[in-house]
Design goal:
Arc Repressor Mutant, subunit A; single chain; Nucleotidyltransferase, domain 5; alpha/beta
């Protein structure tokens, strides 16, 4: 019971701090003496610290308690087919160390595992992370994951990345609790914790990059589905008998509207005779065209780029409209490299959603651009690691009866 109360106070202090002992008693139903006893022990252990006083117009001001940022560390990595990001955070998600490593072109499974291990070791060995106990490590994975077994199931954008037992591989070398989650869900958690989604509990996040994915939060909780594959918006069929997708199907949104698809459509149009300044910008080598070059051409008034980008925005808007009707979110948060096209992408998306989704579902719907940057997935993974470490199972199921307050 005592361990339960300690875990309960630690969790509530981290989530609600700075907070007074009186507020903790109201949240938990614990007796004042129990609150005092447990908080004294946590203060001695350095997990909790005093953090000023509550403002009061009369009577003695209450001391506020908060989680001690240096009570522990979380270490996380986020990767895609190009690079690995590593992050070490304190208990308030403050950055203690961060690093980035490039991956070789078309990395193999072994290349990725070697890079993940190298980044984990670099972050773990850094002075800022070594200054406190490491409570857990985590991987933000670019594909479908099994959070129960710690397995990377598969990723359409990373060739050969299938059924990788990451928990077994990493804990063999790093003896800490291990967690895994999809990178889009991690970005969603980061936006909920630190970014534009903070005021909302029903959230749809859509990532628009080389792949297209979605994360869903319902009543403040992540929605994963029965096998952890919920939110695969990129594999919604948009066109019958359309181009083949990396998943093996045809006509998927990802095959039509990812950043790779945009580059492919522009290049194919030029090969078919369409006029575009991209031909000159690429010096006639269309293989050199990338999403940044298309964004530059668009900014300079290239009509082909504008047409392809607006068509892409409308396709994405149609898919998001279906998701809005399915999930009825308060906010849609957009992230990813396609947002480099600015209003030329956002305008068609927003217009299509307002036009296609049920007017009841869009009456108060906000569509926002993510605030947390490229480190969002690693940051969100850190928040998830700490949530798991501090989780109190059966919350409020073992409460004491509150004592009568003395007058």
């Amino acid at each position: 019971m005592r361990n339960y109360y300690k875990a309960l106070i630690k969790n509530l202090t981290r989530k609600n701090g700075p907070v007074s002992r009186t507020t903790l008693r109201k949240l938990t139903g614990m007796r004042p003496a129990s609150i005092t006893d447990v908080t004294k022990e946590l203060l001695r252990e350095g997990i909790v610290r005093e953090s000023g006083h509550e403002s009061s117009k009369r009577g003695r001001r209450k001391v506020l308690l908060d989680i001690n940022p240096d009570g522990g560390r979380a270490v996380t990595v986020d990767f895609n087919s190009n690079r690995v990001l590593g992050l070490g955070t304190d208990l308030k998600l403050g950055v203690c160390y961060k690093t980035r490593r490039a991956l070789p072109e078309r990395p193999s499974r072994d290349d990725i595992i070697k890079a993940l291990k190298g980044v984990f070791k670099e972050v773990i060995d850094s002075p800022g992370v070594q200054a406190a106990p490491i409570l857990g490590i985590g991987v933000a994975d670019p594909g479908i994951v099994d959070v129960k077994t710690g397995t990377a199931v598969f990723a359409t954008q990373v060739k050969g990345w299938e059924n990788v037992p990451l928990r077994d591989i990493m804990t063999e070398e790093f003896p800490y609790p291990f967690f895994i989650e999809s990178d889009t869900r991690c970005r969603l958690v980061a936006e909920k914790s630190l970014g534009v989604a903070r005021p909302f509990d029903d959230i749809l996040m859509v990532e628009l990059s080389t792949g297209i994915g979605a994360g869903v939060m319902s009543e403040g909780r992540l929605f994963r589905g029965s096998r952890g594959a919920a939110g695969e918006l990129g594999h919604m069929m948009m066109v019958e008998n359309g181009p083949y997708c990396n998943c093996g199907s045809q006509g998927c949104l990802e095959a039509l509207a990812s950043s790779r698809a945009v580059v492919q459509r522009v290049s194919d149009a030029i090969r078919s005779g369409a006029a575009s300044m991209l031909e000159e910008m690429s010096r006639g080598d269309l293989s050199r065209i990338d999403i940044h070059m298309v964004a530059q051409a668009l900014e300079e008034g290239d009509k082909l780029s504008l047409r392809v980008v607006e068509e892409t925005g409308r396709l994405i808007g149609e898919a998001i409209s279906n998701a809005v009707n399915l999930y009825n979110p308060e906010v849609v948060v957009l992230t990813g490299e396609l947002l480099a096209f600015g209003e030329n992408m956002l305008g068609p998306i927003e217009g299509t959603v307002k036009r296609q989704a049920l007017s009841y579902n869009t009456a108060d719907l906000a569509i926002e651009v993510a605030e947390v940057g490229d480190e969002g997935a690693a940051w969100g993974m850190a928040a998830l690691v700490l949530d798991q470490i501090f989780e109190v199972r059966g919350l409020h199921q073992q409460e004491e009866e509150p004592a009568e307050e003395s007058s």
